[in-house]
Design goal:
globular; Immunoglobulin-like; alpha/beta; 4-stranded antiparallel β-sheet; 8-stranded mixed β-sheet; Aminopeptidase
Length: 452
């Protein structure tokens, strides 16, 4: 297939190539601009006003406890849905957790979902954004003490809700689900139930974006302040390959040099490219880990059930604010209070999430059955793929390339058709393929399997 042009990403293009600039979509830029730090702050402070959102706290009060919090979140989602023309509906995802471990009694948990249905009935893709609305103090079994949870994780909840507020006014071919989950602090219970439900019901979740602790810009101990960087954590080797029966697939991935090209890691690369395209003064830092040491997050159950999922967390954490009883001790302030959050920073994180969701939901689906030909000795590389069976038809495809030691895709070649040959050796570079529509919305990247 004829080579069209080469697009430099991080390094200069060769002299023979004509560089092409990808411009942001004006409609998405307008959506990004609508994300409001004032709305985000109001959401965080309202969640804090419920005193505690411990999963074990009161569910009957209208003003305090997790029951009041989830009812308020649902009512806010329902207000946003009024702007959707009937395309968004809101529901509780309700389940019971038995007594044991971090539950002192059988407990009803409720995730809150706002589902913005895609306009294309043949496009079954789902893109999900999430934050957890429960909170805690030092003792995870303490359901009475003041547990404001402003950054952990009213900030992530506010991101999901603000994305829902803005995007509910627009139509997308694919479905977007805005989630706030419960039970994170007790053991990822809400996300665990939702991930199992998604797998059992055959949801086609192509990307899950987990926002957890995205509201602080001050670093504990180091004193560093950074309101321009956010971390995105991603799995390298897919979690499902560690499960019984996947030995051959795992061995093939490692022998192919694909240990850094899982769907989740490709999603992280996509987020960095799109997020930095639309959000000024934001550096998306890819972290080659599932999560931080000694910590876990709601993306993990989705990874374990075979979905591409990542976690966003602020660059520098203040551990005096996390999982602490609110107090002042030896001149040091402890506790996750709303006055310590940086709402302009949360706005940037929300804008990044929104730009990624909008691009993905507008883009064609991923190319299918992507392979790199290995049946002969050659210093060129040939890739083949199939057109997505559902959703909008791609206008063309990008073949992406990077050196084997590079974390980011460095060049893009544009092709039409379903095969491409480039003058670079597959022994020396890594490749992927993504679909693109006429307006420039790109799908997620797909790492190829070798084919003899």
């Amino acid at each position: 297939m004829k080579f069209k042009y080469l697009l430099p990403l991080l390094f200069a293009a060769p002299a023979f190539a004509q560089p092409v600039t990808i411009k942001p979509d004006a409609a998405i830029s307008q959506m990004v601009d609508e994300v409001s730090s004032k709305n985000i702050e109001a959401t965080v402070r309202k969640l804090v006003s419920f005193k505690t959102r411990s999963t074990l706290s009161d569910t009957t009060s209208k003003t305090e406890g997790i029951g009041a919090a989830r009812n308020w979140i649902k009512s806010e989602f329902e207000q946003y849905a009024k702007a959707s023309g009937g395309r968004m509906h809101v529901e509780f995802d309700t389940f019971e957790t038995p007594a044991g471990g971090r539950f002192d009694k059988p407990t009803i948990l409720k995730n809150v979902l706002a589902i913005l249905k895609g306009s294309d009935p043949n496009d079954k893709r789902i893109f999900m954004v999430s934050g957890h609305y429960d909170s805690r103090v030092n003792d995870v079994m303490d359901a009475k003490s003041y547990a404001p949870g402003a950054v952990d994780d009213a900030s992530g909840t506010a991101v999901s809700m603000e994305c829902a507020r803005v995007l509910s006014k627009h139509s997308f071919p694919a479905t977007i689900i805005f989630v706030t989950v419960a039970g994170e602090e007790q053991g990822l219970n809400g996300s665990g139930n939702l991930a199992k439900r998604a797998k059992a019901e055959g949801w086609m979740i192509d990307a899950m974006l987990n926002n957890d602790i995205v509201g602080n810009t001050y670093g504990f101990e180091t004193g560093l302040k950074d309101n321009r960087s956010v971390r995105v954590f991603s799995d390298g080797v897919p979690s499902v390959l560690s499960q019984p029966g996947n030995d051959r697939a795992l061995a093939a991935l490692i022998s192919n040099g694909g240990e850094n090209d899982s769907p989740s890691r490709e999603l992280a690369r996509y987020i960095k490219e799109i997020g930095e395209r639309y959000v000024q003064q934001l550096d998306v830092k890819m972290i080659y880990r599932r999560d931080r040491f000694l910590r876990g997050g709601d993306h993990t159950p989705f990874l374990q059930n075979g979905f591409a999922a990542v976690r966003f967390t602020e660059m520098n954490e203040d551990f005096n604010r996390q999982h602490q009883n609110v107090r002042k001790e030896n001149g040091v302030d402890y506790g996750d209070v709303p006055d310590a959050a940086d709402y302009d920073y949360i706005q940037k994180v929300a804008r990044m999430n929104l730009s990624v969701l909008a691009n993905l939901a507008m883009a064609p689906a991923q190319p299918q059955n992507v392979v790199v030909t290995t049946k002969g000795l050659t210093n060129k590389t040939t890739l083949k793929w199939e057109t997505p069976v559902a959703g909008k038809k791609p206008a063309g495809y990008y073949v992406l390339m990077r050196e084997t030691i590079s974390p980011y895709w460095e060049k893009k070649f544009y092709f039409t058709g379903n095969t491409a040959t480039v003058d670079y050796s597959k022994d020396n570079y890594l490749f992927a393929v993504q679909a693109v529509d006429a307006e420039g919305h790109e799908s997620q990247m797909v790492y190829p399997k070798p084919e003899r």
